[in-house]
Specification:
By secondary structure, the protein is an all-alpha fold. It has three helices and no strands. Keywords: Coiled coil, Membrane, Transmembrane, Transmembrane helix.
């Protein structure tokens, strides 16, 4: 029998393969024994029948039949030979069937032994695979545990750094806010001071200009009075008016 390719995944059997093989062999042996006993019994029956047919006939039994019952004599020799030949052929056929069953039993035993060998081989492979898988699972479990511990440490470190960074960010935001407020306040104050200074300068210039205008107005009033007086005098005397007109023109120039 050709050995099958070992390309299947072995699995753990529920019982022992040797027990299964022994049970199968025992069952086949019992069946074969029963068949042999039956064949032996048939052979004995056939031999007994042949011996009875070959035995001499009793003279009393060979007496002629009375005329009152005229019956034909029974011929038993040819019929007995025919029955014997039929039984012998049946026996030979049964023997051939027994040989065939014997060969099938031998083939079944060989197949059972091969099956037991393959199952033992599969069991060995399964145990080897199981050990490898258990080792891989253990290694992976240990590696995963180490990675989990590392991740937990990193998470704790990140949390601590995050809290410290949050505190630093809050302090920096507060400092920048205070600095910006102070800078804005200073800039606004300086700008206001500059604007106030400009307003004061403009006010001073305007005040000086208004003072000059007042002085010019006072002088103009005085000149108007003098002019009026001269006009009155000119009405009295034309030469005097002419002189005053000339003086007025000179004053304007």
């Amino acid at each position: 029998m050709e050995a099958k390719a070992d390309n299947t995944v072995p699995y753990a059997a529920g019982g022992n393969t040797l027990d299964l093989s022994s049970q199968l062999e025992k069952q086949l042996t019992e069946q074969f024994t029963e068949e042999r006993e039956l064949a032996a019994a048939l052979e004995k029956v056939s031999e007994t029948t042949v011996q009875k047919e070959a035995a001499p006939i009793n003279p009393e039994e060979a007496k002629p039949v009375s005329p009152q019952n005229p019956q034909k004599p029974v011929k038993t020799s040819g019929k007995g030979k025919t029955v014997s030949l039929v039984k012998e052929s049946k026996y030979l056929r049964y023997l051939s069937e027994l040989r065939k069953a014997d060969s099938e039993l031998a083939l079944a035993r060989a197949e059972s032994a091969e099956l037991v060998r393959q199952m033992d081989n599969y069991r060995g492979h399964y145990q080897e695979y199981e050990e490898i898988i258990q080792k891989l699972i253990s290694d992976q479990d240990q590696s995963v545990t180490e990675k989990i511990h590392t991740l937990q440490g990193l998470s704790l470190s990140i949390q601590q750094n995050s809290e410290s960074l949050s505190t630093r960010i809050d302090a920096e935001i507060q400092r920048l806010t205070q600095s910006l407020a102070h800078s804005i306040e200073t800039d606004i104050k300086n700008s206001c001071d500059q604007e106030l200074s400009k307003v004061e300068e403009a006010t001073k210039v305007l005040y000086d200009y208004s003072e000059k205008v007042k002085e010019q107005y006072v002088r103009f009033q005085k000149l108007e009075r003098v002019k009026f007086a001269l006009f009155i005098l000119s009405s009295i005397s034309s030469p005097i008016v002419l002189i005053l007109l000339i003086l007025n023109m000179l004053h304007i120039l």
